[in-house]
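User: quick one, fold this
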Amino acid sequence: MKNKLIGAALALTLAFGIVSLQPVSGQLTLADTIVNTALKEYNAGHYRESLRMYKQARDMGESGKFPPAAMEIIYLGLAENLRSMGEFKEAEKVFNQAIAASESLPAAQRRNLALIYNDLSLLYQDQGRFTEAEALMKQSDGMQQGNFLATNNLARLYFVWGKADEMKPYLDKLCSQSSAS
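Assistant:
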């Protein structure tokens, strides 16, 4: 259930343009098509098919077919798919590739770096690596004004971790963010 919720969050971020593959070339449009189809398969619960498609896109991109902006999204989708399937070691490796792809972009184009940090932190939380999860979630939370996802995940991390005192400021922040919007 939790993995389906994360998949739905990823779908929403794609739909609302937080994660974006704006077509700047024919190859980017191809990447966009593959990623959108893989995401549909993922959301339908067809994880193996989604994984196959993300790997196909990754292989095409690593052979030079797609620019770093597309690779950032491809790696993110692949990593999240692997995380959902419990392939934590491989997912962590791919999340780090997504970070490297994002960091290779000019700072103004790193729209997805906060989401990558957030999703990698969830991988750490899934493994009980709370200290590492906390550091990445705080980094993600500080990167974007009104980052509800990271703020919510920080509150949830502290709840799971049994740190109610640390959770309260993030719950307060969520309340103030929601009343401001």
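User: anything notable?
Assistant: Confidence is low (pLDDT under 50) at residues 11-25.
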